[in-house]
């Protein structure tokens, strides 16, 4: 049972790391319109934009509109980092204590 929990923890950590990488690549591709409109750019947009659109509302939208700088990838990466390194660790630590 402990091996299954460890496998799930490692898999979720890896998935969150990969998604963070997709966010960084999408942000870099957005600087070059030709790359952003490529097949890879459109694929990454479909994967990343639903998550980043959560942070493109309210005061962050006003900031992006007035300065032209979209900080939603930075906020999204910080939240993914927090979930990956703290929340998952806490959850699986509790599961190991309860089941182990």
Automatic annotation (TrEMBL):
Annotated InterPro entries: CCB3/YggT
**Which chain regions cross the lipid bilayer?**
7-32, 74-96
Q: Which GO terms describe its cellular component?
A: membrane
Q: Which key words are in the record?
A: Membrane, Transmembrane, Transmembrane helix
In terms of superkingdom, the source organism counts as Bacteria
**Know the name of this protein?**
YggT family protein
Native source organism of the sequence: Lactobacillus gallinarum
């Amino acid at each position: 049972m402990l091996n299954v929990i460890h496998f799930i923890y490692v898999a979720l950590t890896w998935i969150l790391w990969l998604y963070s990488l997709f966010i960084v690549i999408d942000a870099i591709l957005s600087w070059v319109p030709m790359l952003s409109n490529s097949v890879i750019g459109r694929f990454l947009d479909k994967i990343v934009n639903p998550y980043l659109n959560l942070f493109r509302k309210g005061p962050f939208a006003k900031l992006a509109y007035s300065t032209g700088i979209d900080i939603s990838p930075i906020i999204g990466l910080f939240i993914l980092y927090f979930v990956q390194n703290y929340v998952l660790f806490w959850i699986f630590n509790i599961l190991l204590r309860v089941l182990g």
